[in-house]
Write a structure and sequence with these properties.
By secondary structure, the chain is mainly beta. The chain is built from 3 helices and 12 strands, in the order βββββαβαββββββα. The structure holds flavin mononucleotide.
């Protein structure tokens, strides 16, 4: 018999990455906000990023208008930006109390955070609305990664030091191997 207990449906537990989503508004003002409802799917020949946002946050309004965004992977040294950008909305004023450097994308007109070690430049291909939330299916138009990280043999997440989120912030532990390593060990 399992040792679990039923908790109702008001909790969500999903081990999530943290991205800071970068957008420009219609006047060219830059904005960043943390979004953790981020996943990937596959089109016929390329990966797509799937990003979900609720309410009427400025980031969501910007994405609906411009159809473009950057998704900047958050490493542990970027948590001060997550807390700041996540507890202030651009709808209530410019977020300029923390300093940070950003550059325009290499391929799209999107703001990208210089601190991030993995950046997607994305264009929205399809939007699905469910109640108060919009989920954006985005074509990935470019990926930028840290100059000093080599991914030719696959992605070792420890090198990116990502923040893992499920209501609280965590860092990741050990690199445990690749697909197939555990079959060989049998
Ligand atoms: C750790 C963290 C994760 C968040 N994840 C999401 C998310 O996945 N989707 C969402 O709609 N809002 C999310 N938020 C809330 C927005 O980041 C927050 O509302 C932000 O202030 C919006 O800023 P903006 O109005 O300038 O876009 C998250 C906030 C934090 C701190």
């Amino acid at each position: 018999m399992s040792k679990r207990k039923s908790m109702g449906i008001q909790h969500s537990m999903c081990v999530q990455p943290v991205f800071l989503i970068g957008t420009y508004d219609e006047d060219g003002n830059v904005n960043f906000a943390p979004i953790t409802w981020v996943s990937v799917t596959w089109d016929t020949d390329h990966f797509m990023l799937v990003i979900s946002m609720f309410g009427s946050k400025k980031t969501k309004l910007n994405v609906i208008k411009t159809k473009q965004l950057s998704a900047n992977l958050v490493s542990t040294n970027m948590l001060y930006l997550v807390d700041y950008f996540g507890s202030n909305s651009r709808n209530k004023g410019i977020k300029d109390k923390k300093s940070y450097d950003y550059s325009n994308g290499e391929v799209l007109h999107v703001p990208t955070l210089d601190l991030s070690k993995w950046v997607y430049e994305c264009e929205v291909k399809k939007t699905v609305q469910t109640g108060d939330s919009h989920t954006f299916f985005c074509d990935i138009k470019n990926v930028q990664i840290d100059n000093y990280i080599d991914i030719s043999d696959g992605i070792d997440l420890t090198l990116f030091d990502p923040v893992v989120y499920s209501g609280h912030y965590h860092s990741i532990g050990k690199h445990l191997g690749k697909i197939g390593d555990y079959i060989k060990a049998d």
